[in-house]
Design a protein that fits this description.
508 residues, alpha/beta, Spore Coat Polysaccharide Biosynthesis Protein SpsA, Chain A, 2 domains, seven-stranded mixed sheet, 52% helix, 10% strand, globular
């Protein structure tokens, strides 16, 4: 019986190690593909058309009192022919955001802009439902989408629309820009998040494009060809996953439409300053990605893509499987050590592939910030701890994604935080501690116990890994608790209220 238990535990541990090796190797492969593409001559710059096509800008919003004005005003100032620009504010809000939206919409309508607020009393389908509802009223041949935390630059449409219009671009279904960061320097947490986002866009998205692999629309900061969304073979916006963007982009590519990623076009956005808000965002992305994998894996594998592209697509859709693999290694390591087995030798399989993610992030920073890349890359240890600490949260999301379609779309609160002087802790959108936090406390204790056993049983090779888990969960527990404390009664600089922001803009 003991032998069977040992073999079962070792098999689970080996599966976890091999799974992580695949994803580490995938990071190396995408980095190589991206670097190889960099050595090729730069493509010719897309020229402006003689006549710009009509474009609809859609802004899905739900309870975003702090950032709704910033988003609407940024989009209202887009540099594009006014007679060919329509803005739809898809406002499902149930708080005072609705009044803020109506005030700004009326202001810009008086300025002569074609802008309207579309309010649904039934939030069915959440963001995907709002986009589907508004699509019938969209006038544009192309549809740009910006979430509430974005502030697109004035020339965004001038830089993206030409990529649909040149000869040979007739089957380009969507264009995705790179996300920038409005509050990167706010805290070490925002620094670590932006390091991860830069790696995703600069290397992963660019690498998949260079290799001819499928990649996803990121839900914001991009433009769709209306004809692509309306194509019966694509199926339009659907509400059975929490990643409606990833789902639609893969269905579009399976129907023969082409994606395009533009690293040189940047759409700045705000990243969550609250750790629990970031964790909620990751939960939705993880669950939605796995739901999309569950929904489309058969179609991807049966597609006419090359076997490399099919495999790359499945790895991409299943990227959040990393987290249950990480959790499995922790949970299995302790009983293995208690049974006298050192799990550390299995980790030698990861020796080469483990260089993949650090190299990916280094290349991204070296590309974007060649003179200060090392300083920015120095937040990698914090990002590694975040990835480890998120393993419980994202494992729950993966489990739900494997067995449930749809689900509640829990928004990530935005606070209009752009500088270190901005205060978000007094906002009613701030999230409280939840049940997952208590689970992280339990895993912190478990990881410390595993580290203690490793040291006392002489399995020294496993001790650093157990301590890494302890630090990761400790980060989630301590920072989560610290940010959940009661805010100071007199902050140094209260965040501007929506009315004061609107006043300053009107005066300008």
């Amino acid at each position: 019986m003991r032998m069977v238990l040992v073999l079962a535990l070792q098999l689970l541990y080996l599966i976890g190690v091999l799974g992580l090796t695949i994803y580490g190797g995938n990071a190396l492969w995408l980095t190589w593909q991206r670097q190889r593409a960099q050595r090729k001559p730069a493509p010719a710059r897309k020229t402006h058309p003689q006549q710009w096509p009509p474009v609809t800008v859609q802004l899905p919003i739900y309870n975003e009192r702090h950032v709704a004005e910033r988003l609407i005003d940024a989009c209202a100032r887009l540099d594009y022919p006014a007679d060919r620009l329509q803005i739809q504010v898809l406002d499902d809000s149930t708080d005072d955001t609705r009044a803020i939206v109506l005030r700004r919409v009326h202001y810009w309508r008086r300025k002569g802009l074609d802008i309207a607020a579309l309010h649904r009393t039934d939030r069915s389908g959440y963001k995907a439902g709002a986009l589907r509802h508004a699509f019938a009223q969209a006038k544009g041949d192309f549809v740009a989408i910006f979430d509430a935390d974005f502030a697109p630059p004035r020339d965004f449409l001038l830089l993206t629309i030409p990529h649909f219009l040149q000869p040979g671009d007739e089957r380009v279904g969507f264009v995705q820009s790179r996300w920038g960061h409005l509050n990167e320097a706010y805290s070490p947490l925002t620094r670590a998040q932006t390091l991860a986002l830069d790696g995703h866009f600069v290397v992963e998205q660019a690498g998949r494009q260079a290799a001819g692999y499928p990649f996803g629309f990121n839900g914001s900061g991009g433009v769709w060809r209306r004809q692509c969304i309306a194509d019966p073979a694509v199926g339009g916006w659907q509400t059975d996953t929490l990643c409606e963007d990833l789902d639609l982009s893969y269905r579009a590519q399976l129907a023969g439409w082409q994606p395009r990623y533009l690293n040189e076009v940047v759409a700045p956005a705000e990243v969550p300053p609250q750790l629990i808000a970031f964790r909620r965002q990751q939960f939705r992305w993880a669950k939605g990605s796995i739901q999309t994998l569950r929904k489309l894996h058969g179609r991807v594998w049966a597609s006419g893509w090359s076997w490399q592209a099919r495999l790359a697509g499945l790895v991409h859709l299943g990227s959040y499987l990393i987290h249950p693999l990480l959790l499995t290694l922790l949970l299995v390591a302790l009983p293995l050590m208690l049974l006298g087995i050192d799990p550390a030798p299995h980790l030698t399989v990861l020796s080469l592939a483990s260089f993949g993610p650090p190299l990916l992030y280094a290349v991204a920073q070296r590309t974007l910030h060649p003179h200060v890349w090392l300083k920015r890359w120095a937040y990698l240890p914090l990002l590694m701890l975040l990835g480890t600490g998120l393993s419980l949260n994202n494992s729950i999301a993966v489990w739900q994604g494997l067995f449930r379609q749809g689900g509640q779309f829990l928004r990530t609160p935005k606070f209009h935080v752009e500088s270190t002087a901005d205060v978000w802790q007094r906002s009613s959108y701030r999230l409280p501690l939840d049940a997952v936090w208590f689970g992280e406390v339990g895993l912190l204790i478990y990881a410390l116990a595993a580290a203690y056993v490793a040291i006392n049983t002489g399995t020294w090779g496993s001790a650093p890994f157990m301590l890494l888990y302890a630090l990761g969960y400790g980060l989630m527990v301590v920072v989560g608790l610290w940010q959940a404390r009661r805010p100071a009664p007199n902050p140094k600089r209260p965040r501007p209220t929506p009315s004061s922001v609107g006043t300053s803009i009107d005066a300008g």
